[in-house]
Each structure stands twice: as C-alpha cells, then as structure tokens.
Amino acid sequence: MNLPGQPPKQGARSLDPHLRRYAARTAGMTASEIRALFAVASRPEVVSLAGGMPHLAALPLDSLSAEVGDLIATDGLVALQYGSAHGVPELREQICDVMALEGINAHPDDVVVTVGSQMGLDMVTRIFCDPGDVVLAEGPSYVGALGSFAAYQAQVVHVAMDADGLVPENLREAVAAVERTGRRIKFLYTIPNFHNPAGVTLAVQRRAEVLEICRSHGILVVEDNPYGLLGFDGVTYPALRSTDPDNVVYLGSFSKTFAAGLRVGWVLAPHAVREKLVLAAESATLCPPTLNQLIVSRYLATHDWKGQVKTYREAYRERRDAAISALEQHMPVGSTWNKPTGGFYVWVTVPEGVDTKAMLPRAVTQRVAYASGTGFYADGLGSRQLRISYCYPTPERIREGVRRLANVIKDEMEL
Ligand code: PMP
C-alpha cells in the first residue's frame, strides 16, 4: 500500500540478504494493513477511525500509581521476579470471578494467564494447527487472529454472518463443504459479543445451535471475548464456554476493561488442554510479567473496577452515537452500516463501484483513516466494506472524521 509520507517499500524484499533463510511459515506473515497505516494515521491532522486503541477514560491514575508504588515497596521482590508460566494464583482466582459475570463456572487451575489475548490466540493455534489444517472463522474476522492462523499456515474458511452474528445454517454448510474435501477442521474461531470488526452479537438463541454443530462434528470452539462486558445497556450474554466447558477454549483480556498496555489476558481451557497451553506459554515467554499481573490483581481487589467498566461503556456509547449520527447525516445513498450495541466498531458497506482499499490513500490525503474491509478476510473479500473504530477519538473528531470519509466516498463515486 502506497501511503503519503511512507518510504517506498518496493524492492525491499528482494534486497533482504536473509531471504533464503526464512522458514516457509514466514510467507504468511505480512504486515496488516492497519499496521501499515499506523504511522500516517497517527499524525494529528488525520482523524483516525482505523485502529482499535481503547480510550482510557477516567482511569484513576493517582490511586493506581500509589498502588503500584506500594506494591513495589511491600512486595517488590516477588513482583520483580520470574513467576510460573501458568500465572499468578490470586489473579487466576479473580479471573474466575470476572468470568462468572458471563455465566462461566471455572476452576483457577484451568486459567492460563497470557500476555494479552493475542498471545492466547497464538498459543491456541500453535498447539492445535498443523500446516493446511482448516480454521473456521466468521467472515469478516479479527485481523490479529487471521495473522496468527497465517503464521501457522492454517487455512481459514470464513462463515458469513448476519445482523445476529454467525448463521448456524452457513456454519453447517461450511463444515460439510470442508469435510467433502477431506481436510481437517481444527476449530471454529468466534467472537460472539460486539464483534471485531462487524459490530454484531451472536443471538442468544443461536448459541446452543452453534455449539451443537461443532460438538457433533468434533470441532473445538475458540471463543474470543475481549468486549463482552462492554455492552452499552450493561447487558452481558452467556458465554459459549458456560454451556459447553469441555469443548470451548475461552480467551479473555483486561485490555478493554482496564488497561491494554499492561498486556494481561488469559485462556480458560478444558482441563485436558491446559497442560499443553502452559508448556506453549513457557516456551514463548517463560512467564507473563509478574509485576503487571500483580497490578491487575490489586486493581481488581482495591478499586471499583466494575464502576470503571461502566465509565468505559458510557464513553463508548457516546462515541458510537456520534459515529452513527454522522453516518446518517453524511453518507451517500447506497451505503449501509449496523448500529452496534457494544464494543468499538461499526462495519460499513459503501456504494457499489467504490473500492475501500484503493480509496484509502486518498482518504488519508483528505485527513481521515479507516481500516479497509479486505484486511478482515483471508480470501480477498471485503473491498466494499470498511471498519470504523469509534473507540479512541473524541465525539467531535469522530463526527468530523465521518464527514471527511463520506466526502471521500462521494468523490470516489464520481471518478
Ligand atoms: N481479540 C479481539 C477480537 C480483539 O479485538 C483484540 C484487540 N483488538 C484482541 C483479541 C487482542 O487483545 P489483547 O491482546 O490486547 O488482549
């Protein structure tokens, strides 16, 4: 992608003197479009609706810094030391209490703390996927998950969604189609709540059916749920893991409910899988950062963390409203979008003839950035879609960004 202000990349690969040394699996490792965008999109004059950076609204920085100071003063020799690859025991207990809010009844031994849920995705793919194995994933799906699947040379087969999330009938058809080719499906990767990037939520009445389809075909479910507590009406949905503990691996994270920079997430795995995950974690990092785990643990114990989640929800709801009203006001006829009930993202379909990937450099010139839909598919779809992240900018900037975006689309229609 040629973006203003970026050095030309052409030829860079052929100049790499190490080219013949790389493992075959690195062929699937390409910079995500969003990463390529990051440098330009972070310029102050550009309204970035591209990245999914959380808005750290009203985090109690003073009391947090006092807490961290006290932690180091009183417990520093533990906090600054290696720990177990499994994670700090008291945090794993607290994580079980957090998951109980979505109906999960888990034992702390089955929780493995990770460096963000991104590491969980990497570990789960690493322990389950051989090259060529199939992973089913919603279409569109989370770009970071697609990156992990590509890194382990798994083949992604997308399953289309509608306004109520994954469509069970489409899942059945996808399973049958893959089975006909004789390939092995290792798991279904799904983001049931406030989907990234589609913004939709899997209807509660579909959840049992999705689980039943997977169970009856011997397919594991990987449930990725970083946004579950960020429903704008305070509604939480029953986790898939809550009804089928033996066939669901659940990924959780404090990135969106507390602080992404601490990089603390977790995997809750069926008991039998847990040991392999701990070994995979050990070989990746030895152990997750002890200090960060203890910070999260103290925060959960001493702060009104649920009140903070409510503050986040309100900030995101206000931003969602700004995005939706600006879309209604400015977007040209022929565009459609959904109204998310939680999370960070609106998924927009632009009028026919507009290619969101080709349009992106021109949008950046017009001082607005977004994520084009193609990055969220492993199979090249998505050129008429784009993702707007309303999580980070102020409502005014969001409105201005959407106005600029609509103008770029209108110009594009006239080309
Ligand atoms: N899964 C989904 C669906 C996400 O949107 C993200 C972050 N944007 C992650 C996983 C990774 O989050 P983290 O590693 O910060 O926990």
What overall form do the CA principal axes indicate?
Answer: globular
What is the averaged pLDDT score? Answer: 94
> Helix proportion of residues, in percent?
40-55%
Class by SSE composition: alpha/beta
The helix-strand sequence is HEHHEHEHEEHEHEHEHEHHHEEHEEEH
Compute the gyration radius: what is it? 21 Å
Tally of helical segments: 14
Measured between the Cα atoms of the first and last residue, the distance is 20 Å
Strand line-up across the major sheet: 2-9-8-7-6-3-4-5
pLDDT < 50 stretches: 1-8
Tally of strands? 14
Strand content: 5-15%
Largest sheet: 8 strands, mixed
List each distinct ligand once: 4'-deoxy-4'-aminopyridoxal-5'-phosphate
Structure, briefly:
Helices cover 44% and strands 14% of the residues.
Would you mind describing this structure in some detail?
An eight-stranded mixed β-sheet has the order 2-9-8-7-6-3-4-5, with helices on both faces. Strands 10-11-14-13 form a four-stranded antiparallel β-sheet. The protein has a two-stranded parallel sheet with strand order 1-12. The radius of gyration is 21 Å and the shape is globular. The chain has helices at residues 33-41, 61-79, 89-100, 116-128, 143-151, 168-181, 204-216, 240-243, 255-259, 271-285, 290-302, 305-330, 356-365, 395-414, and strands spanning 47-48, 111-114, 134-139, 155-162, 165-166, 185-190, 220-224, 248-253, 265-268, 336-337, 345-349, 368-369, 371-372, 385-389. It contains 14 helices and 14 strands. Helix content is 44%, strand content 14%. The two termini are 20 Å apart. α4 runs parallel beside α5 (143-151). It has 415 residues and is an alpha/beta fold. Mean pLDDT is 94; it is low at 1-8. The structure holds 4'-deoxy-4'-aminopyridoxal-5'-phosphate. The site of 4'-deoxy-4'-aminopyridoxal-5'-phosphate has 14 residues, from α4.
